[in-house]
Every structure is written in structure tokens, then in C-alpha cells.
From TrEMBL:
Residues 1-28 form the signal peptide. Gene3D superfamilies: Vaccinia Virus protein VP39 (3.40.50.150). The keyword Transcription does not apply. It comes from Bradyrhizobium macuxiense. GO terms for biological process: methylation. Transmembrane segments: none annotated. GO terms for molecular function: methyltransferase activity. Keywords: Methyltransferase, Signal, Transferase. CDD domains: AdoMet_MTases. The lineage of its organism: Bacteria, Pseudomonadati, Pseudomonadota, Alphaproteobacteria, Hyphomicrobiales. This is Methyltransferase.
Length: 254
């Protein structure tokens, strides 16, 4: 009888230990997964950014990318900083965002807008990186968790940028297992990289070929910004229908 009681006690103790480990794993996973909807809904975000949210679907984008607290991320062609701020809010004070742009683009288009945004408390963990696109990584930066390139890779096709060099530099800057997340406006099959300046689009297959040539491996594709009603033959800023956009997640092999 005593042995039976001891066996039951041992089994109960083991089951309790297993349950505790499972609960700890669940709590750890929940802690590692930010509430993206709450981040997007933060009351101190601007009305202009909320208007942009309607077409950008930022909660879905952050979830697809897998942005987590404490990450270190390079945001390529940060422009006025819409995505940069969302990334900064998500990685939190223990993370860091490098917001990259070239000196020419800043001077001509976005300096005042980015500088104004940079005063916000949410941007305290952001470092503004002013470097050419084909040499975007500061020499003291390495082992990045993620690089984001949102809706601007097509700009590289009509600017004096060596895209092959740029892609290799991004690959080298990521830690093994790190991610490159790219979204852009879709061009028609056959357009390749020829309509970047006129339509602000790029053919998805062309972008894939260029990025994969640097060593990146495609691990996921998002369909939440696809709009098949878009004929893909008009400039994105003048389109009368929602723009068809592709979202790709690449990984640097371990």
C-alpha cells in the first residue's frame, strides 16, 4: 500500500513538473510576441500615420516579419520614418533601430519630416544612418536581427545604386538566421526593373532573383497586401484602385 502511494505521488509530482514547464514555455512565448494591434493603436501616433495604416496594414506586417522586443533592426530607406517608428515601438527601449537613408534623398525629400518625428519619445532607440544605399551599414554594426526594406527597393533601380553590392552588404550585416523582410509595389510580368521611376513598381520575380543571388533564402510570402484588381500599369500615386503589393521574408542561413 505504501509503495502504491509512493508511486502515485511520484507520478503526480512528475506530471506537475511537466505542466509547470509547459506553462513557462507558453508564458515565454507570449512575452516574446508583442501585441501588434495595441502598438498600432497607441494614442500618441499621428492622424497622418493612422491614415497610412489603412493601406499598409502595419499590425499584419509586424506580425509577418516577426518583430520582437529587444531586436536590433536596420530599416532601409527609412524616408519620413513611418515604419521606423512602428519598429521602434515594437522592439522597445531594450532594442535598437538603425534608420538608413542617403544624404541626397534626405536633403531633397524627407529631412524635416524625419527630424520632426525623431523628437517623439517613441524614437529614442533610433539611430539615423546617413549612408549610400549600396554601402548602408555603419562599420561598427553587425549581427543584426532583421533588415526591413519597405516599398522602396524599386527606388534603387533608377538611382545610382549597385544593387548586387547592396544586397551582399545586407546579407553580411545580418546574424546567421537573421531576416530580411521586403515589401514593394508589384509590376506586370515582363516589366522587370524597368518601371521603377515611371510607375514606382518592380516585378516580384526580378526582386527575388536579385535578393536570392546574395545568398538569402525565401522562407515566407505574405498575401495580405495583394490586390488582383490592380492592372499594375499605372503609377502607384495615381492609381484609382488599391495597389497590388508583395511581401517577402528572407533568412540568412544558419
Amino acid at each position: 500500500m505504501n509503495r502504491s502511494i509512493l508511486r502515485r505521488t511520484a507520478v503526480s509530482t512528475a506530471l506537475a513538473a511537466v505542466a509547470l514547464l509547459i506553462a513557462q514555455d507558453v508564458r515565454a512565448e507570449n512575452a516574446a510576441s508583442p501585441d501588434y494591434a495595441a502598438i498600432v493603436a497607441a494614442p500618441d501616433r499621428t492622424d497622418a500615420d493612422r491614415l497610412t495604416d489603412q493601406r499598409r496594414q502595419p499590425a499584419k506586417m509586424l506580425a509577418f516579419a516577426g518583430v520582437k522586443a529587444s531586436m536590433t533592426i536596420l530599416d532601409m530607406e527609412a524616408s519620413a520614418g513611418y515604419s521606423t517608428e512602428l519598429l521602434a515601438r515594437t522592439v522597445g527601449p531594450s532594442g535598437k533601430i538603425y534608420a538608413q537613408d542617403s544624404a541626397d534623398v534626405i536633403a531633397q525629400h524627407v529631412k524635416d519630416k524625419f527630424d520632426t518625428r525623431a523628437q517623439k519619445p517613441a524614437m529614442k532607440n533610433v539611430v539615423h544612418v546617413v549612408r549610400n544605399y549600396d554601402d548602408p551599414i555603419p562599420p561598427d554594426v553587425s549581427n543584426l536581427d532583421m533588415i526591413t526594406f519597405f516599398f522602396s527597393y524599386h527606388d534603387m533601380t533608377y538611382m545610382p545604386v549597385d544593387r548586387a553590392v547592396m544586397n551582399k552588404k545586407m546579407f553580411a550585416a545580418l546574424k546567421p538566421g537573421g531576416f530580411l523582410v521586403i515589401a514593394d509595389h508589384s509590376a506586370k510580368p515582363g516589366d522587370g526593373a524597368s518601371v521603377g521611376k515611371t510607375l514606382h513598381r518592380i516585378e516580384e520575380s526580378t526582386l527575388k532573383q536579385e535578393v536570392e543571388a546574395a545568398g538569402f533564402k525565401l522562407v515566407a510570402e505574405g498575401d495580405f497586401l495583394h490586390h488582383p484588381e490592380d492592372p499594375r500599369n499605372m503609377p502607384v500615386f495615381k492609381a484609382s484602385v488599391p495597389i497590388d503589393e508583395f511581401v517577402l521574408k528572407y533568412q540568412k542561413p544558419q
